From TrEMBL, chain A:
InterPro entries: GGDEF_dom, PelD_GGDEF_sf, TackOD1. This is GGDEF domain-containing protein. It comes from Nitrosomonas supralitoralis. It holds the Pfam family TackOD1. Residues 346-460 form the GGDEF domain. The lineage of its organism: Bacteria, Pseudomonadati, Pseudomonadota, Betaproteobacteria, Nitrosomonadales.
From TrEMBL, chain B:
SUPFAM superfamilies: Nucleotide-diphospho-sugar transferases (SSF53448). This is N-acetylglucosaminyltransferase. The chain crosses the membrane at residues 20-41, 324-349, 355-383, 395-417. Residues 157-369 form the Glycosyltransferase 2-like domain. Belongs to the glycosyltransferase 2 family. GO terms for molecular function: glycosyltransferase activity. It comes from Nitrosomonas supralitoralis.
Length: 460, 441
């Protein structure tokens, strides 16, 4: 179904009529009464203002904000950032609608899309090659705007702030650096004026002054003091200065403050914000990088899973300690066992090589269940003083105190048998690897950090 | 040793019985008829000027015409910057337009970049402008100068070299002369910038003092200046355009001077002036070899100009009797005939006389020239120099100078011979061969 918005009575060509069902509306409110489910929206006509108003309403619609939207005539440059371009030929249009529908189907449909972050992800997801481009607007306080963020945002909050959050949570990736600009420390405006002032009294009343440096006596003074009826004569040693480079030259001090008479090489630069009128030093300015951006892998994962798939949640019941603490304790154990040979321990590593691939095979809920089951079994194998940590999403480390070579072999057997059921569940697709060592085998000079790195290397 | 002893006895004998040694008198014609009167007249003229200058009240005019400085650049590299800066630094209230014509820009990228680097500096000086004319096809000095002339907007046109720099009052002094509508060209003293580098440059430094500063001053005040040098010539642009600018071929400066002189009979009021205050500083060849190479061209060009290009122009009906006589005397006799007579004379006495007599004779010649130079140098130091302290250093080179002069004269004869036999004017670094061939052969 093509929803055509048009002020005039003009019609789409017959080619479209033959291929698609077409519904005409004079404006968005007329459509809202009926809410005919659209395949695409088409805004027809040359009135740019009209295009802009309909488009704005489409992108704010709670259900169809992400729909394809085409125009037949040029729109305002700003609106181009919210459009899918000119109306393609019927065959191409058909392809685009099909692709759009496929993507829409694969989209995990849940409440996520009520939030503005979810709306953004949906918009991106439905346009696989979409790039979020900034729009340069000199009248805007920050010189750049992201029209799409402004349209999809549910409130009027700063789109740059939102963009920063999106970038921090790695939902969007930068593609290309478009500009790097300085912004006001107080209001983040880019409308700044730079003025050089005297470094001594900060007066703006400064000017260049021609000075001379006499080679004979080293006197440096204003050129006027040297000039006597068309001849340069040093005011101090009275020698005649005839040739630059051999009798005299121009010193570097080139500015003079008219308020305090200070001579200086370079003025200090003061920055004044045109928006909030506050003054600051140029070093205080905030540097803002303007990028074009696209949806990240993480963003795509959210799109088709409904949420971020975090492997670590499967191991939640293992009561991990932090990596730093684990290394600290391991170090302590290593030092202790070297000093007292009767004290021994074992280190055991479990590595899941192909979790991301498994995500593709099973849905994430099942995989999560499997991992949770494994974690349960693992927990039953661990004794109270055993410590565990995770150095990567798929790398677990267990520190087993008072477990010698024999104890380690026993532990290895037990964990292998518990893995059997997990393997069966995963149809033998799960690729896990074990590595272990006991205190007797450790070389003398190694520390915990190196030990972990060495073992991890052996696993790969 | 025996020879030296004999020379000494002979010398004593001369002192007692002068008339017995006829060959000594062979020297007299040259000295008496060629050199001494020339120096004498020159110095008299210089003194006349100095006295006049001391007596007359200085006239300050509020005349500051638009000036164009055309710099011919080639492979000077960074050195060209000091030329341009010395022009920017001129104490002159009028506008100074600097045109840098860079010949063969492809080959001389370093010079080009050195010029481009100056652009931001120029904007700091009020009433100064810099135009760079990059010439892709190398056309030589003449084509550069004519290109500059066609582009010039000033009333006064300065033809300058890229390796020459100037005192900061040069334009002030030079331009003031053009207040007088009869003045068509002005030149000033050229000093050696790299005098302290080698013995060769020290010798040339002394030579420049006596010929460029004293010689030109005296001759100019007599109205018979021999040449407006190519590295430092100041012209009234309208007149320069009237004579058609520079002409293809080497020694374009001497050619232009002679062409200006050929207006003298028809326009007797025209003058070429010498301004002692318009000082320029130039680099001279540092090695003996480079010096000889430079002179080979200069002296060879003299013959080319006098015998080929201006064969018919050298006449009283064109340049007037005064300039003709001077030209025959200084240009032909002094510069062309004398080198040959010196060579022939030296060979003659070397063959004819016994060795001791030859040494004696050469010693006498040396002593004579040493005295002549010393007197001139002292007079120069007392009356002429504007940098007395600096010029005092040249005193140490005085004993060597007569030998240098002798070698220069002999080399001059060879250069002229080379020109006559080999057409040396076609072998010039100033322009490519295809350009030189277009000139009058």
């Amino acid at each position: 179904m093509l929803i055509v918005f048009s002020l005039e009575e003009t019609d789409l060509s017959t080619e479209y009529k033959n291929n698609f069902k077409i519904c005409h509306f004079s404006d968005f409110s007329a459509w809202e009464k009926e809410r005919v489910t659209p395949s695409v929206f088409i805004i027809q006509g040359k009135d740019k203002q009209y295009i802009s108003s309909v488009l704005g309403k489409v992108r704010k619609d709670s259900d169809f904000f992400a729909s394809l939207c085409f125009i037949t005539d040029p729109a305002f440059p700003y609106d181009d950032f919210l459009l899918d371009g000119r109306l393609p030929q019927p065959a191409n249009l058909r392809d685009e609608i099909n692709q759009f529908d496929n993507l829409l189907e694969s989209l995990k449909n849940n409440e996520t899309y009520l939030t503005h972050q979810g709306r953004l992800i949906k918009y991106f997801w439905l346009r696989p090659n979409f790039v979020l481009q900034p729009y340069h607007d000199w009248q805007h306080a920050r010189f750049y705007r992201y029209p799409l963020l402004e349209a999809l945002s549910l409130d009027k909050s700063d789109s740059f702030e939102w963009l920063r959050n999106l970038a921090n949570s790695k939902i969007i990736d930068p593609i290309m650096l478009i500009d790097r600009q300085r912004e006001c420390t107080y209001c983040r405006s880019s409308h700044l004026s730079f003025i050089d002032v005297c470094p001594n009294c900060l007066s703006i009343d400064i000017g260049t002054q021609a000075s001379l440096h006499c080679f004979t006596c080293g006197c440096v003074d204003v050129q006027e003091k040297f000039l006597h009826s068309g001849t340069l004569i040093c005011p101090k040693c009275h020698s005649q200065l005839r040739h630059i480079g051999s009798d005299y030259d121009r010193p570097i001090e080139n500015y003079r403050c008219n308020s305090c008479s200070q001579s200086f090489i370079e003025g200090e630069v003061q920055v004044r914000c045109a928006m909030c009128e506050k003054e600051m030093e140029s070093s205080e300015l905030i540097q803002n990088e303007i990028h074009s951006r696209r949806l990240s892998d993480k963003g795509r994962t959210i799109a088709f899973r409904g949420e971020v798939f975090d492997l670590s949640s499967g191991f939640d019941q293992l009561n991990f300690i932090s990596r730093e603490l684990f290394i600290h304790d391991l170090d302590w154990m290593m030092v202790t066992s070297r000093r007292y040979p009767n004290i021994n321990f074992s280190l055991f590593g479990i590595y899941f090589a192909n979790l991301p691939e498994l995500v593709e095979l099973f849905n994430h809920v099942r995989l999560l269940q499997m991992l949770e089951f494994f974690a349960q079994q693992l927990r039953s194998l661990l004794r109270t003083p055993d410590l565990s940590t995770r150095t990567a999403e798929n790398m677990l480390w267990l520190l087993l105190p008072n477990a010698d070579e024999q104890g380690l072999i026993g532990f290895h057997k037990r964990i292998e048998s518990s893995m059997k059921s997990l393997l069966e569940q995963s149809e033998h697709k799960l690729d896990f690897r074990f590595i272990s060592t006991s205190s007797q085998k450790l070389p003398n000079k190694e520390n915990a950090e190196l030990l972990l790195a060495r073992l991890y290397g052996e696993l790969l | 040793m025996e020879n030296l002893n004999q020379t000494w006895y002979l010398f004593q004998a001369i002192l007692s019985r002068y008339q017995d040694f006829q060959y000594v008198f062979m020297l007299i014609p040259f000295v008496l008829f060629l050199e001494l009167p020339l120096y004498f007249i020159n110095w008299m003229s210089a003194f006349r000027y100095l006295i006049k200058d001391a007596i007359e009240a200085p006239l300050t005019l509020h005349y500051f015409p638009h000036v164009t400085c055309a710099i011919t650049c080639y492979a000077e590299g960074k050195a060209v910057q000091s030329t341009v800066i010395s022009l920017l630094e001129q104490i002159y209230p009028g506008h100074i337009e600097i045109i840098a014509m860079l010949d063969g820009v492809k080959k001389n990228q370093a010079t080009f970049h050195a010029l481009v680097e100056l652009a931001p500096l120029v904007s700091q000086y009020p009433k100064r402008s810099l135009v760079i004319i990059p010439k892709f096809q190398r056309g030589g000095r003449v084509s550069s100068l004519n290109a500059g002339l066609s582009r010039a907007r000033g009333e006064i046109f300065l033809a300058l070299d890229g390796d020459t720099s100037f005192d900061n009052q040069m334009i002030h002094y030079a331009a003031s002369h053009f207040w007088n509508p009869n003045i068509v060209a002005v030149t000033g003293p050229m000093r050696v910038r790299n005098a302290r580098k080698t013995i060769m440059t020290r010798l040339q430094n002394l030579e420049y003092m006596l010929t460029m500063q004293v010689g030109k001053l005296g001759f100019a005040k007599l109205g018979v200046i021999n040449n407006v040098p190519g590295a430092f010539g100041i012209f009234r642009k309208s007149f320069l355009q009237q004579v058609g600018g520079w002409n293809t071929g080497t020694a374009e400066d001497l050619d232009l001077t002679l062409r200006i002189k050929q207006y003298y009979k028809r326009y007797p009021h025209l003058q070429i002036e010498f301004e002692p205050g318009a000082v320029s500083h130039t680099d001279v060849p540092e090695s003996f070899k480079d010096f000889l190479k430079q002179r080979l061209r200069w002296d060879g060009d003299l013959w080319y100009i006098y015998s080929n290009k201006h064969k018919h122009g050298i006449s009283a009906s064109m340049m007037g009797w005064k300039n003709l006589i001077f030209l025959l005397w200084y240009g032909i006799l002094f510069q062309i005939v004398m080198p040959f007579s010196i060579v022939i004379y030296t060979i003659y006495i070397a063959v004819k006389l016994p060795l001791y007599a030859f040494i004696l004779s050469m010693t006498l010649v040396y002593a004579f020239y040493f005295c002549l130079i010393s007197v001139q140098y002292i007079l120069y130091l007392i009356f002429i120099t504007d940098r007395r302290k600096e010029d005092c250093n040249a005193i140490f080179i005085l004993p060597v100078y007569p030998i240098f002069q002798f070698i220069t004269r002999v080399w001059s004869a060879l250069a002229i011979l080379n020109q006559i036999i080999n057409k040396g004017h076609l072998d010039s670094a100033m322009a490519p061969l295809w350009v030189l061939k277009k000139g009058k052969q």
